[in-house]
Amino acid sequence: MRKDYRLEKRKYVIGGFLIFIALIYLVRLFDLQINDSKYKAYADNNAFLNKTVYPSRGLIYDRNGELIVFNQPAYDVMMIPRDVQQFDTLDFCHTLNITREQFDARLQDMKRSPGYSTYTPQVLITHLSAEDYGRLQEKLYRYPGFFIQKRILRQYNHKTAANVLGNIREVSQADIERDPYYQRGDYCGDLGIEKSYDEYLRGHKGVEVLIRDAHGRIQGRYLDGALDVAPVSGRNLKLSIDLELQQYAESLMVNKIGAVVAIQPKTGEILAMVSSPTYDPTLLVGRQRGREYRNLVNNPYKPLFDRSLMAAYPPGSTFKPGQGLILLQEGIINTNTAYPCSHGFISGGLRVGCHGHGSPLPLKPALQTSCNAFFCWGFKALVDKRSKYGTPADAFEVWKHHLVSMGYGYKLGVDMPSESRGFIPNAPFYNKVYGEGRWSANTIISVSIGQGEICATPLQIANVCATIANRGWFITPHVVKEIQDTVMPEIYSEKRFPTIDARWYDEVAEGMRMAVTGGTCRLTDLPDIKVAGKTGTAQNPHGRDHSAFIGFAPYDDPEIAVCVYVENAGFGATFGVPIGSLVIEKYLKGSIPPERKYLEDRMLESNTIIYSGVKKH
């Protein structure tokens, strides 16, 4: 019989196929047992529970060591869905003082949350009250799969500086994706220094390894805690804020919209940073946080909007000292150069009004009387000087460059989130608006007196005042003075020098001193403190003018520089000057003398918010 070679070949094919299948199984077994840790993790989850231990968040003190923010314990109800067994749901809800509908709704929200897993702990209810915690702790054995997670909530000794402090909130999915430190249910800083210094304040989480029995019940710590990792507390912060001054400035700004910023010129430390209207920071703590946060968001006066570093205002006449410095630096004027004022600046058919005073006058009396015409003529002489700069556009860029070096137009770098850069236009901006080569100083003359397109934050305006107080340098403003066991970043100790020669600052400072002794800032003329200042009245197309003031003291050895900005309050001397002078006096002397109590009372009792145009008052 002839041999069938086709059957012979089929034997090898079948054998090879069986070997191939065996190899697939071997590779898969190797992958499951050696490479893939998923099933090991499932097994570990059956035997162990890795319970997160949250660290104590860093405490926050003011510059004098007064405790402002501390911690209190809070408790969340956690569940591992796959470990939950049948239990008395109504009894559970009654224990926690919630309805069955609320319980079901919370379960559905949990399942829809990104990152939900039946194998990992999920947050069911946050911020148990002490009573609810006590009741649940007694009955917890009845509810397999549930446990209590201890957390930290912020508590406040004083209802002040909410815009500086910020608050904490539960992390979002974006937070988790941005920073692997976070897991669902964690808390992070939200607004203020709680946000900008979150990595210092939060510390490092610990872990307790707990062992389960065959029924999933916790039996205790595995190996007596040998594998546990202790949490590391967050670092404490000492602020540069003077709590007493902050509270006082906030009281002066009640029923007003605006901001007060006070800086220690030599260090750049912010002594007070007020945004008004403000809010009680305790509102954003605990289970009511979501409701109160919505109320603040919907408040027509926008208390969550930090006007001290986010609002971009026209600086008005507080801009003029910087203008004077630029004109001196560029050689457009000297200390004796005088310009006429015919109740304003008049050039062709253009007129910019001014109040009555002597004419013509040089720089210092121009600062003393806040003469619009002087700075309009000086700006025109600079921008239209083709013999030196070539074109108005090139001259304007020189002018802008000086302003940027002073801290206008870009973020200063303060250690707070959401700082605004303000706005200083450049030549391409005007080329786009008017056409290249089709504009001159007269076209944009309003910027010479801090109006038009010019916008700056109260922080920037205060920083320029601090620069003049220092006679030519500043340190980046900051609200944190010290971080526990950590060196502060160099940016908050290095001097920054604008493009203006130091010799010109005394000239401008003297003009600001004259404004106090016999000009627009007379209310700041204190008998035993030499103050220099400058008013600002910024036109507002939406209503009454804004009232502004900058000042520093003592004149020869400055310890404080202040910017006050009150929306819709009229002349700078009406509200900006009184509030600024009271803040300066409070900081330097500790109290307001009896002869000036009338002024304090008037500021405490006055209401300018009614002129804001907001419907609700």
SSE topology sketch:
Blueprint: H1 5-35, H2 38-47, E1 48-53, E2 60-61, E3 67-79, H3 89-96, H4 100-112, E4 122-125, H5 130-139, E5 146-156, H6 162-165, E6 167-170, H7 173-178, E7 187-190, H8 192-196, H9 198-201, E8 206-212, E9 218-221, E10 237-239, H10 243-252, E11 258-264, E12 269-276, H11 289-298, H12 320-329, E13 344-347, E14 350-353, H13 363-369, H14 372-383, H15 386-389, H16 392-406, H17 427-434, H18 458-469, E15 474-475, E16 480-483, E17 495-496, H19 505-518, E18 532-538, E19 546-553, E20 560-566, H20 576-589, H21 597-605
Parallel strand pairs: 2-10
Antiparallel strand pairs: 1-8, 2-3, 3-4, 3-5, 6-7, 8-9, 10-16, 11-12, 11-20, 13-14, 15-17, 18-19, 19-20
Helix pairs in contact: 10-20, 12-14, 12-19, 13-19
Question: Any overview of this molecule?
Answer:
The structure is a single chain. By secondary structure, the protein is α+β, with helices and mostly antiparallel strands. Helix content is 35%, strand content 18%. It contains 21 helices and 20 strands. The longest helix is centred in the N-terminal third of the chain and has 31 residues. The chain is elongated.
Overall pLDDT, averaged?
A: 90
The total of helices stands at 21
- How many whole angstroms does the radius of gyration measure? 33 Å
Summing up helix and strand content along with how strands pair, one would put the structural category as: alpha+beta
Distance between the termini: 113 Å
What proportion strand? 15-25%
Note the overall shape. Answer: elongated
List how many beta strands DSSP finds. 20
Query: Mind summarizing the main beta sheet?
Result: 6 strands, mixed
Oligomer status? single chain
Helix content: 25-40%
- Taking pLDDT < 50 over at least 5 consecutive residues as the criterion, the unreliable ranges are none
